[in-house]
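Tutorial handout. Part one gives the primary structure; part two gives the three-dimensional structure as tokens.
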Amino acid sequence: GVQTCALPIFLDVGASAIGIDLNPGPDNPWVVEGDFHDLRFADGAIDVVYVNSLDHAYDLDRVLGEVARVLVPGGVLWAEIGMGSEEGNPPGFYEALSWPSIDALVARIEGAGFADEGRAAFDVPWRGMRVVLRKGLKPCDASGIQRGGVLSPPG
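Part two.
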């Protein structure tokens, strides 16, 4: 799902932004009903996909395939990834997916055709890592961008 507070950050910097959620709630002007396993956007129509709910994916490969499908060539997947089970974050009752470590999940995302371009740790609302991944680039193709570099938040 999309946290209501995440989308205004993108809107504040002039981006067109819309969220999807299985249950967007009645008073959420930026979020429409939808499922990240079956995105309702045209192929190659989106510049940036932001996700903070990969732990709710029933089929990670399908989600990553949908993200890759809707992104423009060289588009960005910005993922907020919670710590893995080996990093002190065991799966909870509502999680459909878990991973041993952030590195393990990022490696799986890279296997779907994305290159890790930068990371920044965060502690609120949970401990994890913001990871920027670019579609269709191998790590050595990301000219001028150091693999595993530091991500600066917008604004």
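Part three, for discussion. Confidence is low (pLDDT under 50) at residues 139-155. The first helix runs from residue 6 to 12.
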